[in-house]
Task: inverse folding
């Protein structure tokens, strides 16, 4: 870098450091922020382990499956998801269909929402994928049994659609 550009860069960084030092102190967390964090912790502790077990079982059965964990993001509501791609029989043997997803996410008005996006296998005629809310439950009432029920309902819907 040229000396004059390097000097400009240093001046910009020094000015930013001065402004940051004069910034007002960060306010205490709002009530909604603490609820969001509590739900993220609950999703991480209850939902994620169950989805990991289901993912392992699906993979052992020869299906494609993965989980996504977005419980620690600062700019979005926390969520945990299971993606599942079933095998379908085709002319060339075993093929894979489109990936379907089950998402457990925090909604400040409803608590935890289970949303399923079931996609049928592509066929000669066009079909539309369906996304449906599988249920809602309060953050405090979230339990392993509820997650298991919603997950089994999702897998059953995907296998029926394919």
Result:
């Amino acid at each position: 870098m040229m000396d004059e550009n390097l000097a400009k860069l240093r001046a910009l960084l020094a000015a930013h450091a001065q402004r940051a030092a004069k910034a007002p102190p960060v306010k205490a967390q709002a009530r909604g922020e603490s609820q969001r964090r509590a739900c993220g912790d609950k999703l991480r502790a209850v939902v994620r382990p169950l989805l990991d077990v289901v993912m392992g079982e699906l993979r052992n059965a020869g299906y494609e499956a993965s989980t996504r964990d977005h419980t620690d993001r600062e700019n979005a509501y926390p969520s945990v998801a299971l993606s599942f791609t079933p095998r379908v029989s085709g002319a060339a043997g075993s093929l894979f269909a489109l990936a379907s997803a089950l998402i457990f996410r925090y909604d400040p008005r409803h608590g935890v929402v289970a949303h399923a996006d079931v996609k049928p296998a592509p066929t000669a005629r066009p079909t539309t994928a369906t996304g449906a809310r599988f249920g809602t439950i309060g953050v405090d009432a979230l339990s392993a049994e509820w997650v298991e029920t919603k997950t089994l309902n999702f897998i059953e819907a995907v296998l029926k659609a394919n």
